[in-house]
Amino acid sequence: MRMRLGTAALFVLPALVLFGVFILYPMVTAFSYAFFDWQGTSRGAFVGFKQFEALFTKPPFTTDLPRALLHNIVFFLATIVLQNSIGLGIASLLHSRASTRRALQTLFAVPYLVSPLVVGYLWSLLLSPAFGPVNTLLRKVGLESWALPWLGDPTTALPVVILISVWQWIGFPVLLYGAALGGIPEEFSEAARVDGARPSQIFRRIKLPLLLPAIGTVSVLTFIFAMEAFALPYAVGGSTGNPGGATDFLSLLFYRTAFDSGATDAIGTSSALATLLFVVIFGGALTATWVLRRQERRLLG
Amino acid sequence: MTPSFSSTVHHGPIRRARPRRTLLMAAAATLTGALLAAGCAPSNSDSASTGTAAGAGGSAGGSGGGAASADGPVTLTVWSWRVEDTAAYRKIFDAYQSKNPGVTVNFKAFKATEYNQILATGLSGSDGPDVPQVRSYGQLQATLAAKSLVPLDDTLDLKGWDPTIVASAKGKADGKLYAVPFAQQSVQLYYNQDVFSANGIKPPTTWKEFQDACAKLKQAGVTPLAIGGKDDWTLPIVHEAVAASRFGGKEFAAAAASGKKNFTDPNWTASIQTVADLKQYMPDGVTGVPLTDAVTLFATGKAAIFPGGSYDLAMLKAANPDLKLGVFQMPVVDGSPAGATPTTAGWADGNFGVNAKSKNVAAAKKLVKWMSTKEFGQLVVDEIKQVSAVPGVTFSDPVMKQMSDFYAKNPSPYFLLTDFRYGTPSGGELFTKGMVNVLLGKQSPAQVGTDMDKGLAAWFKPQQ
């Protein structure tokens, strides 16, 4: 038995070493940075949780951190509601069109293949108040009052960012739900139809419960995606999340703290922020998975 | 029917793969990215940081090549963030090499947005540059705090230089000089000469003339002021170009820097209002207009005036080589404090220093000393097309000469940058947030000042 354990350890060792050197070590180092004082790049004394305290007591964090977190949460909820429900709708509509399903799925996934930086740049060109075709079109068709500075007004900027994101990533739930729908045996629906169930009943009482694991997966992935959103907000609103911080996100705040501020203790505060971000996302994903698993068991069990 | 279905499901063939563990792994993996970004920052001298430093140094050719014997051949490595000036710098250092036989200057430029990280890594390891280009004012302090640069008070003699410019190379804590400023920037209003003459307008000399000119241009269907408020970092520059006289220029700057006045001062508030009142002359939806669109409006003659920095000159010329450019200084705004003059704000935006870990400190000091001479300054003007900070250089480009003259005649520090960037949140950052909100009508100018005072209180402790 002891011999076997040793052999097993030997086989695991290479992977463990690689994991330790390339993932664990950098992560733990980053965590550890958050607990020290920094003078530029030279590490000072151990200061415990002082850097974390600063995140909750010092400007700009006192105003920017709650605002950024709120935007991340709004972004997450809106993405869940819009992207995933529209995605599910499209997926189930496509599912019934066997001949064109493949082609249409590909079409929906095309924006997904373009870098979010490029997508953000293109949309900011399209929506530019001075030359953008969107506002020109709105004026041409007589909707003068709709020709707003879409990305320049805080009330419209965040919704526009969300809509651009939904437009880009809609292919993701379409593909995942498409695959999950394909995994549900046709016999179930047939049997239900024989029993006299309406299509809406079949969807609600058969397909939806069976899709639950897929919905859970998509939701948790969406949570991670939304909490670390960076490229699109950065391309649309810059590192300050303009206008006036209306499109600020946690990762932008991290970027500003680490790379833009030029503060002497930037490494300490930004590491603390990164650690906090990790805890929020990891904790959130953990909780969400746990809740979803329970729901799943309750429904299926 | 439900029970039968659910039991089918339960015993059915569909076994879901364990989504939990995969998801958590995905969460962990994606997050590693964010943490790595922080983790890459080097600590003082552990093996990880020297590893990366060696990487960066290796790509730069390193500096160890010419080990320092007193008169033997020496290779000096210069790092910079001005990739676009590489050819010009090579030419400049060729001039130095021909006068200093045995010295080879190896110029290496890195992408500006990545330069701070590369430099920090380079300076903490042993293969960094001998002469690094370093940032100015508050942005320099992190480099100094790491004790990466050699004090140069004994090497450099910057008497006769503008004190605002020299301050960019000094340590805030110890007041020592650590570098030589390589260029100065100033803020002014560019105008399109053809558009002005087509509308019968001359560069204004009074506030009324300026307002009349704007009204006339607007009537003619030309956007008077090309401002890209979506790139909100340009707004403090617009404010400084348009309303510096209204808050009292350098007098207010000195009073604010010493803590005698704060940003709730009525003149400061009024200067913000001055910009807000000009919103009617900016492009529609100005807070949504990117800088590139503002430049396009200006370069194509759809807009007449572009408030900007001297560093914008090359970009404006590139946008339209046929553009007939002129510059003017904003006349004194009505209601300005007594004795106000038109003023041009300036600052230094980069310096050259000597790496404390350089193996060739003496040779590096000699090179940096040369960078404070008129010879180098003139080369900066002629080759790099920047306004050199060295006193007494001459300009062949009329616009550049005009900008330098404006600053020489009525200088004021661009004080949000020169005095209020030594901590976070910086003065410029706070002002920018407020100015956007004022343009959007969401905040009053007085509120901007209150927020600035509140934010700055986190770190700004003036010695009274």
From TrEMBL, chain B:
Keywords: Signal. It comes from the Bacteria. InterPro entries: Bact_solute-bd_prot1, SBP, TAT_signal. Residues 46-67 are annotated as: Disordered. Pfam families: SBP_bac_1. Residues 54-67 have a biased composition (Gly residues). Residues 1-37 form the signal peptide. The keyword Signal applies. PANTHER family: ARABINOSE-BINDING PROTEIN-RELATED. This is Extracellular solute-binding protein. It comes from Nakamurella aerolata.
